[in-house]
Each structure stands twice: as C-alpha cells, then as structure tokens.
Amino acid sequence: MTARAGWQRRGHCGRDRAIAYQDRIAECNDADLHAFVPWHAGEVGCGFVHRQNVDWLLQHAPAFTRRPDGLGLCADDFVSRSAALAALAVQLVSAGRVPALRGELYPVVRTFGEPPLLQLDRAAVPWFGVRPFGVHLNGFVQRPDGVHLWIAERAHDKPTFPGRWDNTVAGGQPIGLSLQANLTKECAEEAGIPAPLAARALPVGCITYVRAGPEGLKPDTLFCYDLDLPPDFTPVPHDGEVERFFLLPVRAVADVVRDQRRFKPNCNLVLIDFFLRHGVLDAELPADARAKLARALRAPLP
After folding, report:
1. Cα 83 from chain centroid (whole Å)
2. Which tens digits make up the pLDDT trace of 140-199?
3. Crossing angle between the packed helical segments 250-259 and 265-277, to the nearest 10 degrees
C-alpha cells in the first residue's frame, strides 16, 4: 500500500505516474524481519542473519551456536569476537557469499557511541545484518535565484549503484574515527573540500531505514550535515568514487527525487530531509503530509 493516497500534489496535472516522496522512503524500508534470525554476543543483540544462511553459518563457524532467541557468538571479548568474524568473512568471500573484503573496519555496536563489541570488514556488514552508520552531507549554494545543491555523479565503474546520483559527500563510519573526523576525511577525499571549510558543516540530525537485499540486511543510520558553500567554490573529485559534480536548483532536485529513480536510494532520504527542513515542499504538500514524511525518515531500528 502506498502512502501517496489522498495527497493533493499541485502542479503535476496529467502525470498519473508521478512517484510520491513517500515511495522513495518505502523503497529503503522493505525489510521483512521474519526472514532473518537475530544473533548475539553474550546478551547483546548484534545483528541478523538471513534464515537461508543459518545452516551454512553453523556448519562453517564453530563460534556460532543456536540458542532460544536466535544465534550466539561464543567469544568473550572484542579481540576474540573480531578474530572469529574476520576468519568467517574470508570464508564467505571464498564461498562467493560476500564480495571482496574492503579493508575498512566497522564497529559492531547496539547504539552509536557505545564501546564496540567487535569490528567487522565493511563488505560483510550486510551479511551479518549489523547496524552500520554513515555521514551524508548536502552542499548547497545561496544564489540570487534561490538555493542550489551540489550533486555528485557516482563513478560508472563502482560496484554499487554505478553512475547514480549521490549527495555531495557520503561515506560509511569506520571504527576509531569521530563523526567530525570522518566527515572531514570524506569531504577531502570525495570532493576536495578543505578541512577549514568542512568544519563549517552543520549537523542537522539523523535518519534511519531498514533495507533488505541479496547481500543481507541494512538497519542503517545516517548522520546528516548541511554545508553552505561559497558561490565561487566547486567540488572536485579526488578518490575516484565520484565522476563529476554539478549544480542544480533545489526545486529541480526535488522533482528528480519525486519522479525518477536517478539517485542512489538512501540519498533520496537525505535529500527529502533537506527539502523538509528548508521549506522546499511547503507549497507542494500540506503540513500533515510533510509531518508524515518526517516521521517516516526515522524508522524504528530492530
């Protein structure tokens, strides 16, 4: 059932196939948690393994056992837990169940900021259904004709969502870095934004979603930032993640989000949040519809 029913969207007469903003949010919240089995380290829930992978896991990982509430990792500390999953991640790659390891380690935590229970290679994070975190930044420019957004086009040789549009800067949150340090790093690597300019980015809250796919489960949290960029500044790709940057009026970006699937799916959510906070949708959607969108951007995480 789509949430667009009953919404009166003005300015789109004759476009029967126009796609509502709510659909973009729903596309990132398609997980059926009944298809997954929770796993724990001690008494702490760590993630979710797809039911079809449970038998393989128990056959290849003696550190995992069945328990009444799902699966348990029989290791007592950060080092032993991390070692057990690192060895298992190598087996998963060899078995073709996980893509090549990235060499970037994510913390496994129940709540952001807690001491990590273990660390896990980024490539294996969805397979184990652990909670990843990321930083996403919308760089915008104040021009006489209104707000414009810097859009990143992902490299066409990327393994995930090649050529799709992206937020100005985005990246996963590795272990051992603060949010600000990670944002500064990503700004420099992806867009050539120098540290003093990146330091002006404003934290504006977080959004959550729970998405399932062939790779596993993503109960994701994205920490969002706004950066008011100087009119004479142009982002420049540095690390090969982004092919180019281009500037679009914010209203044009909203139309693309609503009517097309041009952006990487979770970037739509970050943009919708930007539209709501900056009043971009005020003339298009009634207040109750905007409030419904805001609530949907913060889905309860399992």
Report:
1. 26
2. 999 999 999 999 999 999 888 999 999 999 999 999 999 999 999 999 999 999 999 999
3. 130
Measured CA to CA, the distance from residue 207 to residue 217 in angstroms comes to 17
Please report where in the chains the tokens 């790659």 appear, as a residue.
93
What pTM was estimated for this model as a whole? Answer: 0.91
Residues 6+ apart with CB under 8 A from 207: 221, 222, 224, 269, 270, 273, 297, 298
Fold classified for 21-31+133-296? Nucleoside Triphosphate Pyrophosphohydrolase (3.90.79)
Nearest alpha-carbon partner for 136 in 204, 219, 193: 204
Strands 36-41 and 202-213: unpaired
Helices (H) and strands (E) in the chain, counts: 9, 13
Burial of 300 (0-12, 13-18, 19+ CB in 10 A): exposed
Structure tokens at 294: 């805001």
Strand 118-121 with 105-108, pairing = antiparallel
DSSP state, residue 263 = B
**Domain 33-128, CATH among 3.30.750.160, 2.60.40.10, 2.40.50.100, 3.90.180.10:** 3.30.750.160
